[in-house]
Structure formats: C-alpha cells, structure tokens
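stage 2 :: seqdesign
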C-alpha cells in the first residue's frame, strides 16, 4: 500500500511544518489552560460572550465546566482553522509541489508505481494529523492532571480531539484532492484553501440564523458541533464517522485521479 522509505522522506521534508503547527496548537492548549480559574467565576466569562460568538461556537452556556471552557476557547474555531491550514499546506507539498518542481519525476523513475507513491503521501498526511492531535491531547491531559486534578471530563476532552480530527480528515482530503489534480502549487492552494474557506464562511453565515440558517446543509462544518460533545448528544455517533468517510472519499478520488492523469514530467 505504501513505501516506508518514501514515508520517512515525507516526514523529513515536512518535519518543520508539522512541528511549527503542532507547537502552535500545544502552546495554545497550555496558554488557555493556564488562565483557567474555576474559582474566579469562569461562568461569568462564558456568559459575557456576545450571543453571536456563542452561536458561532455552538455552545450552550447553561453550565460551567473545563471541557466547555476548552470548547469555547479552542475547539469551536481556532483548532479547526489552524489545523485546516496545516492540512492544505502539507497536501500541497506532498503532491502538487513535487510535480511542479520535478521531484515527482524522480520518484516515478523508481520501482514504485504511481499508486504506491500517492498512497504513501496520503497516509503520511492522515497520520501526521493523528499524531498532531495526539500531542495536543497528551499535553492537555498532563497539564490538567497536575493543575486541575479531578476537574477534567477526560471522555469529553478526548471526544473534542476525535471530532476535530475527523473534521480535519475531511478538510485535508479536499486539499489532497486539489493537490492531486493540479500541476502547480498556486492552483492547488487556491482550490484547496478556497473550498475549505467557503465551507467555513457558510457555517458562519448559517450561525447568524434567520433565513441564512439553511446554509448549514451546504457545509461540512455542520457535522462538527462542540455542543454535541459538551451536551452529551448521540449525534456524534454518526456525524464524526460521516466526516471521516467523506474525507477518505476525497482522498480516494484524489488518488484515482492522480494515477490516471497525464503529468507534465
């Protein structure tokens, strides 16, 4: 399915990008947790949020918990957007940039066929996202065990990570498909980032309510609601798997298109 040597090469060439974005996410996690004070009226902080912001983050602010605080501060917007940028950039570097620079011609001259090469690139992207969120989850758990023993709903905390990971599989799949069908990096980035950004904007418009609420059916961001996790909704049992399935479908289409299309080598 994939080539281990090529996988290591992908890891080396994308290490700085991965470390930078993982570092940003971990740092944000630690900074947000460091200012959390359950005895200082964090509920007042939540209720001080404008109604529009609360709606955007899909948060029901009737109770005050550490998981809800993290859902508001990180997982409602910042984590999905930052990791979305990583997925788009990494997808571009893994395929389209190699085609543009001529590196892909070198790889194709090896005994490995197109299928194995592009499968390896796709596996690296998904695995790098998995490890990225694994690092943020580990950092958050350790910090909470030390500073807030017994305060964290571990299941809810991990489900936030599972949900955003499934969302990023979908968004990175869009970026990977764009990379597989593009000959130049600029087209890959424009297509991958453009579609993902449109989905994000549609969600923001839908959250404004009124007649715009119907737009929620036109964006994949609707499938990741932090409130579903905070409120214990069973909707995550079908929403998260659906996000992953849609994402892997994008990957599959991208791989199929790359294998059969003419390359400017």
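stage 2 :: out
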């Amino acid at each position: 399915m994939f080539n281990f040597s090529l996988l290591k090469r992908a890891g080396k060439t994308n290490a700085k990008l991965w470390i930078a974005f993982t570092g940003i996410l971990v740092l944000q996690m630690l900074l947000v947790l460091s200012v959390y004070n359950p005895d200082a009226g964090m509920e007042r902080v939540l209720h001080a949020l404008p109604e529009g912001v609360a709606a955007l983050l899909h948060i029901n602010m009737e109770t005050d918990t550490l998981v809800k605080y993290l859902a508001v501060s990180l997982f409602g917007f910042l984590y999905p957007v930052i990791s979305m940028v990583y997925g788009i950039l990494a997808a571009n570097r893994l395929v389209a940039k190699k085609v543009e620079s001529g590196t892909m011609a070198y790889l194709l001259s090896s005994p490995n066929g197109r299928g194995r090469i592009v499968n390896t690139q796709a596996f690296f992207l998904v695995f790098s996202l998995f490890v990225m969120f694994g690092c943020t989850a580990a950092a958050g758990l350790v910090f909470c065990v030390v500073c807030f023993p017994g305060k964290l709903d571990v299941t809810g905390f991990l489900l936030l990570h599972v949900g955003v990971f499934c969302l990023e599989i979908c968004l990175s799949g869009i970026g990977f498909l764009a990379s597989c069908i593009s000959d130049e990096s600029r087209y890959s980035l424009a297509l991958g980032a453009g579609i993902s950004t449109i989905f994000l904007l549609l969600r923001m418009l839908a959250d404004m309510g009124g007649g715009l609420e119907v737009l929620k059916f036109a964006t994949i961001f609707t499938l990741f609601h932090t409130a579903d996790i905070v409120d214990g909704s069973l909707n995550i049992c079908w929403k998260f798997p659906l996000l992953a399935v849609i994402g892997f479908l994008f990957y599959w289409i991208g791989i199929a298109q790359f294998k059969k299309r003419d390359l400017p080598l």
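stage 3 :: structure notes
- The first helix runs from residue 4 to 13.
- DSSP finds 13 helices and no strands in the chain.
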